[in-house]
């Protein structure tokens, strides 16, 4: 399954943000996470209430979605096994398509072919993105530690009373 709507996401309007804020608060107040399922009531166009049973995990996801909308962020739900085009994967990683293709060809990111076209699983892209983030954080920590070490060395080599 190829996701073609990945680029067609728009930011929520002011009214949607306001509704999301109210809805998130209301849902959070009534969400009982110790149960596997929960019942909610939805009113139709004729104002008739219908009770629906949903998995608690789905309601937690809805709570997260409402939180993002309340913050003014666009949200899109993508199945973990969704197949992405190279352009969609590049967009998710915030890199150019040629750079992504190089990552694929170098074996840094798994892919498969559908006919002549490369496809990447959404889960693999997210896994790669998380790995890249962890490596960046580790490198920043290493630089910070090195900077602190150099600063301490400079402090011990300074002459008393000098600036």
UniProtKB/TrEMBL annotation:
Please provide an example of a Pfam family that matches this protein in its UniProt record: HTH_17
Origin, by domain of life?
Answer: Bacteria
Q: Which GO terms describe its molecular function?
A: DNA binding
Entry keyword Manganese: no
According to the UniProt entry, the coiled-coil residues are: none
Keyword terms: DNA-binding
| Location of the Helix-turn-helix domain | 84-132
Any idea what this protein is called? DNA-binding protein
Q: What is the scientific name of the source organism?
A: Kosakonia pseudosacchari
What does the organism's lineage look like at the top? Bacteria, Pseudomonadati, Pseudomonadota, Gammaproteobacteria, Enterobacterales
């Amino acid at each position: 399954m190829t996701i073609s709507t990945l680029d067609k996401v728009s930011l929520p309007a002011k009214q949607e943000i306001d509704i999301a804020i109210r809805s998130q608060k209301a849902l959070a107040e009534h969400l009982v996470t110790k149960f596997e399922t929960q019942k909610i009531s939805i009113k139709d166009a004729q104002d008739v209430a219908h009770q629906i049973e949903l998995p608690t995990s789905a309601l937690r996801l809805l709570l997260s979605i409402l939180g993002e909308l309340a913050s003014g962020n666009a949200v899109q739900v993508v199945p973990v096994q969704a197949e992405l085009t190279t352009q969609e994967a590049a967009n998710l990683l915030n890199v150019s398509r040629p750079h992504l293709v190089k990552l694929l060809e170098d074996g840094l990111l798994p892919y498969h072919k559908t006919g002549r076209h490369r496809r990447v699983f959404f889960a693999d892209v997210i896994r790669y993105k998380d790995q890249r983030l962890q490596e960046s954080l580790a490198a920043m920590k290493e630089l910070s530690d090195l900077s602190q070490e150099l600063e301490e060395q400079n402090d011990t080599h300074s002459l008393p009373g000098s600036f």
